[in-house]
Design goal:
It is a single chain. By secondary structure, the chain is α/β, with parallel strands linked by helices. The chain has a domain of 55 residues. The chain is built from three helices and four strands. Strands 2-1-3-4 form a four-stranded parallel β-sheet, sandwiched between helices. The two termini are 20 Å apart. Keywords: Phosphoprotein. InterPro entries: CheY-like_superfamily, Sig_transdc_resp-reg_receiver. This is Response regulator of the LytR/AlgR family protein.
């Protein structure tokens, strides 16, 4: 399984990557890749099974816009928003995010 973390906060990316890396096993290996921006994820062109998205990503595209763009071409990738912004909670349903 490939998990992509898209978050503009370096400490959050590192902590999440470290936590998820501890969950890998020989029978269920995990590949975890972290990106500081939505554009970096798109440019990498590396499909993921699960996206852990921050909603506010600093400058550039935000996480919700990225999720909508992904959904236009891919209905199968699981998307989960990792954010402190509760005002976006219902927007996640528009892109079939994991609840």
């Amino acid at each position: 399984m490939h998990i992509a973390i898209i978050d503009d906060q370096t400490a959050t990316r590192q902590a999440t990557t470290q936590l998820l890396s501890q969950l890998t096993t020989p029978t269920q290996p995990l590949q975890v890749t972290a990106y500081p921006t939505a554009e970096a994820f798109l440019f990498a062109d590396q499909p993921a099974d699960l996206l852990l998205l921050d909603i506010k990503l600093g400058s550039g595209m935000d996480g919700m816009t990225l999720a909508k763009q992904i959904r236009e071409h891919d209905a199968d990738t699981a998307i989960a928003f990792v954010s402190n912004y509760d005002e976006f909670v219902f927007d996640g349903y528009d892109v079939n995010a994991i609840d």
